Structure of Muramoyltetrapeptide carboxypeptidase:
Amino acid sequence: MSVFHLIAPSGYCINQEAAARGVAFLEQAGHRVENQGVIRRRAQRFAGSDDCRLADLQALAELSESERIVLAVRGGYGASRLLERLDFAALAARQQRNPLLICGHSDFTVIQLGLLAAGDVITFSGPMLAGNFGAPEMNDFTWRHFWQALTAPRFTLQWESDAAPCEAQGKVWGGNLAMLASLIGTPWLPDIQDGILVVEDINEHPFRVERMLLQLHHAGILSRQRAIILGSFTAAKPNDYDCGYDLDAAIALLRERISVPIVTGLAFGHEQETVTLPLGAWGELAHDGKQARLTLSGHPVLNNVEKNHSAG
């Protein structure tokens, strides 16, 4: 059994039914879910006032029990409002003593990158309570990859991709592209040299994806990486006006502009089927022109849980 400690640093969970379903699913799988009161909390569009949501995060520094998974309820917007008041140093010190396994994605990316910048704290970019564990049917791929990342000190992801053959090693980092771009020029964007940058997004037209990637390029961030991995870009659909321009065209442009390898096709992001990535872990990427392999290591893991997990 694992203990899931819920936090809600972003938007109000409009789909209360999904959140309840997520809690029930985790409990039926034999886990304990604590701090459930944050699910129902609301202030305007947010999951409570800024003070309440900030307290959720700050309280993590005082959690004493080990073997605990911290799980974001959902994304949306709101975490950016907390950055300048959050005591990242206290959280980083707690993680260095006895790391919590902190998991979420989307809007939560700014907190994850802030922790990485402040104290090299590794967190997990992966499923959240409402959108993933609260789906009408839990995706077995997502469930298995979640536990793989949280229990295996070293594991490998493998997927098909049509990128050119390449090899790279470095710190794996990134998350949601829009949130990463929003941190450029702030203290909360980690300065990663020779890393492997992994990004994804949702509801962004291909030209917006291109514009954000070009922003990272113009800021000198992309050229400092060993490789770039593109996850899923859900609902990045062109329209009639685009006249043939699409996400593939945007990627082709980026490949013309930079010499860093760009590998596509990783199941990572806002889809029901997604891997879980330890942001800040060591990555070893190899691509033979047809298939990519990313081996991750150096991240904290749970020690006292059964590792054979199935969503069935």
